[in-house]
């Protein structure tokens, strides 16, 4: 690309700018309106009760207020419990007031001298069988089970209450049960369903204990997160003074470690001299599954030593030739710390981005739930004997007035499944896809808005000739207003490209999951290549978008122009880009490691009551790892939020620095805007100015 020429009117972020990428702005507004319409339609047709409440075979909710099943809060099975009810056996599910707590068969209840057993048994039949004399008919037709099994309510559903006693699987203190057909069965036949039930119960108990731990330790968790916030802020401030020391210490440590590696390889090489079998070449030995065999060969240690020597020489040569660029990177990092110090509100701005992202995710999740529950109850004709209407759809309220009930006397109109045949239900998958696509688009738009806002604020710091006197009064709010007023279209353009790539990646992951069982190696290979390519493309677009947003914030150009100018500017300074990127990555990694590690260790010693000064203050917990992990994850998120602001500041100052070098030459007409430290490092000065 062509280097930028000096513009005498340029004094930092341009205030007199126009709207960019208007078409993409209109497209985003139309998409958001369509997204709202989809949400309204989903909320109109959807019913989240289908997720919360179980239904019986007639599609009626169990335990729902204002319904016939209001007092029947759990779902039992009228069919034998070892059979899982399906849509082909719709009569097997009923709502009951409580799960059965005993073994009882129909024959046992019917032959019992007390009518209480038969009355108890009757409650596990469908409501139509209100006469005790009809219970036998209910068993024959499948409307009632041939026997009940002790069960427990799990997620409002009755599942066998299996327990283990000294390694023996039991249900109701029995190892076998009567299936109601005159056969004795082992309770292990119920094990699969009960295992899931026990898992749910154990998870519920675990959740309750975790909740109890949070109730007694939440304020200590908040204190730990505050400590992480303060530590992150202190680390950013200290970078102004210690960035150079930390970078050079890291470089020296790498050189020393490589030097020790070379020394260790030489000692192993010398120690193996004269030992039997140590002089065998790697070529003669061939491939061995036991890799320890290679450690007994002198040639192995000689190869390690040569590789480490080559790496050591390369690093030393890079330090010799890139020492000035490393110093520039350190100076920019120190300057970024000063910029953040002058715009302290920038450290709180990620909270705004986080809040908007939460709104996007909440809207997506609620719309997805309503869309997934917007299917209507479909009723079909079921009968015991042959009937030409079997399997056809029907309506329960008008079924008795149709010819079906006359031609097929034993036919019933029963709930089969949730579905629908309207245009809305036919395009339901399209609405779900649109919902996912809009999540990615809006999430990327929110992130882009945060990046442009921070870039505009930090650019106003760099292009202030007298820092911070020439800075605007509220640089962060000014940058936010410019981004929304003029560049919504550009942000929508960049986020749209990312959203398309991410949706393709999600689709490829779905196809990969579906093809795992297939034995098509070519398809798997092709899919793996596509996944790798789109992963690389997403990483590149994130890098390009980030720098394009900086150029948008500074110059007010459209997305394509900004992306092109940023790309060519970075390519003209590719070595500086690589050095700065690695130096900042190291410092951010070190900062996160120090903050998360120190706060995590402090939380561990506190919650395990190993600090004697506050031993009595620490709460008593069921699982001490609950608050510790919460503090560690929260500390990482806090540190990541602080360093994301700092990283945006470094990238913005770096691009402004490169533009400054290309546009200006230090003369009275073209003075440098960089800080005195950078000018001193580059041996540059502003001629004829008192701050030169």
UniProtKB/TrEMBL annotation:
Claim: Glycoprotein is one of the keywords in the record: yes
Regions crossing the membrane: 21-43, 218-238, 245-263, 301-322, 343-365, 438-463, 484-504, 548-571, 583-607, 623-643
Alphabetized GO MF terms: antiporter activity
Reactions catalysed: ethanolamine(out) + n H(+)(in) = ethanolamine(in) + n H(+)(out); choline(out) + n H(+)(in) = choline(in) + n H(+)(out)
Any Gene Ontology CC annotation: plasma membrane
Subcellular location: Cell membrane; Mitochondrion outer membrane
Annotated membrane topology: Multi-pass membrane protein
Keywords per UniProt: Antiport, Cell membrane, Glycoprotein, Membrane, Mitochondrion, Mitochondrion outer membrane, Phosphoprotein, Transmembrane, Transmembrane helix, Transport
Source organism superkingdom: Eukaryota
InterPro entries linked to this entry: Choline_transptr-like
One Pfam family hit: Choline_transpo
Matching PANTHER family: CHOLINE TRANSPORTER-LIKE (SLC FAMILY 44), CHOLINE TRANSPORTER-LIKE PROTEIN 2
The protein's role, per its UniProt record: Choline transporter.
Family indicated by similarity: Belongs to the CTL (choline transporter-like) family.
Name of the featured protein: Choline transporter-like protein
Source species of the chain: Chauna torquata
Gene that specifies this protein: Slc44a2
